[in-house]
TrEMBL record:
It comes from Dentipellis fragilis. GO terms for cellular component: cytoplasmic side of plasma membrane; ESCRT III complex; multivesicular body. The lineage of its organism: Eukaryota, Fungi, Dikarya, Basidiomycota, Agaricomycotina. Residues 272-291 have a biased composition (Basic and acidic residues). InterPro entries: Snf7_fam (IPR005024). This is Snf7 family protein.
């Protein structure tokens, strides 16, 4: 754990008071989470050499800390022994998703895929390096031309052409390796699919071999079910007929049409009562209005009579001048 203690010391700013084992667990969870994000990208993505594992996870397992080789070995051991997330065989590290036998061992197919993956990575790095050299030659040739150094410019142009030829070769090799890797991964996946088909077929055959699924047993079961269903229907019919007879004997069996007519009569009666109440209410309101109009007419006539005779009426006084004149 000396390497992990060193990692803990270097990452004290982010790890705080966390113990070395706690830091290892955090790093392992980060590695597993990142690896799961690549799930489905192909079998090659689950295979790493130690160098490939370092490039992929040394700088991302713990925030702010670049893990040393000793730290990485402790981390890989924890992933294998405690997390059961990887299997390791010498320089091959394989992430596993299940505990199936083909997952828990590193096969010659895994080694072949990893070799192809490493070759593709190496060629990709060479291609990037050649691109950089070509750009450098182009820049130097331009600088030489601006400085009126024609011979130097021609040298850089010649080097660039050679690099472009090498780049073409490397790109051709890279294309072949990438195509081969894709075909190998596809073939390995096809094998896994066929094994799944085989397992499914065996499971289905085992189920169909169950005595309960034999043709005679199925026919007998369905016949028994049909017979039981018919018996249940007969019982239901008998209960319904008996109930109808009991209602008739008790005098509670009524014709549906008669019930509907009675209901319609009740509805009509209710509507008639409502109309009569409305008519009665209207008559009362009209009589009240007539009484009010008669009272108002009588009051008006009384006031008019008072004006004619000079007799004051309630709410109105006779003008003083008219009274004096009279």
């Amino acid at each position: 754990m000396a390497g992990m203690r060193a990692m803990h010391s270097a990452g004290a700013a982010c790890a705080g008071s966390m113990s070395s084992s706690g830091l290892v667990e955090r790093a392992a969870e980060a590695v597993v989470a990142r690896q799961r994000s690549r799930a489905g990208a192909g079998r090659a993505e689950a295979l790493y050499s130690f160098e490939g594992f370092r490039k992929a996870f040394a700088g991302s397992a713990v925030v702010g800390v670049v893990l040393s080789d000793a730290d990485l070995k402790v981390l890989i051991r924890y992933l294998e022994r405690d997390k059961k997330a990887v299997v390791v065989d010498k320089d091959v590290i394989k992430f596993v998703e299940s505990a199936t036998p083909d997952q828990l061992e590193i096969t010659f197919v895994d080694r072949g895929i990893l070799e192809l993956k490493n070759a593709v990575a190496s060629l990709s790095a060479q291609v990037d390096n050649i691109h950089q050299k070509i750009d450098g030659c182009t820049a130097k040739a331009s600088d030489a031309l601006r400085a009126k150094r024609q011979a130097a410019a021609l040298t850089y142009v010649r080097s660039r052409r050679q690099l472009e030829g090498l780049l073409k070769q490397r790109l051709g090799s890279l294309e072949i390796l990438q195509s081969t890797l894709i075909r190998v991964e596809a073939a390995a996946d096809d094998i896994q699919i066929l094994k799944t088909y085989e397992s499914s077929t065996s499971t289905l055959k085992a189920l169909l071999a169950d005595p309960a699924l034999q043709r005679d047993t199925v026919d007998k079961t369905l016949d028994a079910l049909a017979e039981a269903t018919a018996d249940a229907r007969e019982i239901d019919d008998a209960i319904r007929v008996g109930g109808d007879m009991a209602r008739v004997e008790a005098g509670v069996d009524l014709d549906e049409d008669e019930l509907e007519r009675e209901l319609a009569a009740l509805v009509a009666e209710g509507e008639q009562e409502a109309r009569e109440k409305d008519k009665e209410r209207s008559a009362k309101d009209k009589a009240k209005e007539q009484e009010q109009e008669a009272a108002e007419t009588e009051e008006l006539e009384r006031r008019l009579a008072g004006l004619k005779t000079g007799t004051p009426t309630e709410g109105k006084r006779t003008p003083v001048l008219e009274s004096d004149t009279a």
